[in-house]
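hey so i finally got around to running the thing on that chain from the lab meeting. sorry it took forever, my laptop kept dying and i had to restart like 3 times. anyway pasting the input first so we r on the same page abt which one it is
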Amino acid sequence: MKKILVASTNQQVIDTVKLSCKKYATYFDADYYNDTDEALSSIDYELPEIKIIDFTSKEIDCHRIIATIDSDPWLHNGGIIAVVANAAQAQEVDERKDPNILIVQTLTNFKENFTRLLRILWRNQHFLFNRGMQENFGGKETGSFVCGNDPMDFRLYTRFLVGYMYSSNRISDDDLYSLQTVLMELLTNALEHGNCGITYDEKTEWLEKGGNILSLIQEKCKQPEIASRQIRIAYAIGRTKSKFVIRDDGEGFDWRKHLNKDFSEETHGRGMKLSESLVSSLTYNEKGNEVSFEINNLKDAANTIPSIMQSFASINFVDRQIVCRENEISNDLYFIVSGRYAIYTDNKLVSVLSPNDMFIGEMAFLLNDRRSATVMAIGGGKLIKIPKVSFLNLIRRNPHYGIFLSKLLAQRLLNSTQKMLALTSQLEDLKKQIEIPSELPPLD
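ok and heres what got predicted. didnt touch it at all, straight out
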């Protein structure tokens, strides 16, 4: 079950959340706060996955809450739904380009869409509730989304993909902005010019008359043929590169002519040029209704180091240098800044950790015992060494660090259990194939 924090004094917001959570009582549980300090305390202690921050509630210091979440990477699990009074305020909040804000909704839209929002969030929870919780198998993650002609859908899917890439240390802060910008530009083109068939001149005329592009999209979608069209977003997220493909059901366009056009004096139409400048290998199919691009991923490096870690000593390691040895008496915790680290028990390789795993040495740290494994750097790397007493003091001042560490360990235990079950199943299949006895036969 996922926790929802609602920071609001607006009864309409509260009633909307209560009604939707009643429909999804098995999956979501909401707590309501009408005081900023109480809401921040809950964020520290409960680590709610979804935060509904209501800017229509004057008693709530929404900017302070969001700033607190933004300042601490360990509070980035999940996301924020911002509720605002009107379209102007929505644009103001949206222009912050805050990676922790999933979507901005006016009060009217929030009341209409929140139930659907919850359904989408639950179905795609693996993209959201994962800061430091990903298991790195070294392979490729592939999948796709299908959405209709509602901009809210692809805004959410964009935030899912960008947030997941960032949380899994595949992109930097600068890459985050670039990827989000490119996805939104290309998806907007797929909706407006692809599915809705809005021409450049038609959009120009509409905007010059003071029209809103969303109202033009709604007008177009009154036609059944257009309303039934969809947009498909496919992704292949690898270790070194990631690829994204966007396809619409429209008639396509002359993309070569468009890419060569000068839009420097135009009010719109620069999205394709901007997208091309921000990513590599941006290509279209011949028809012009499918576009794909690639980005290079960060490799074995943390994109964010919590500010509290920066006061501790960092240690650089060279290839095959030992970090600690099995049965050694020490209980320092190590934060992984960069590199990969092989874990050996009884001289056998049992795991490889990367910045995605965040920590090394948590067992000796928690149990106050000898090291349970030998850790060796693979290639160059950097660790931040945190003495046990210092980290305990941090937990006293920031309780959510202890909760986060507990969740991290629980996730690792779950992953280990799943691996063990998979290996057991493979072993059973192998025994059936070649008739391996379950027990050794007795000696003659």
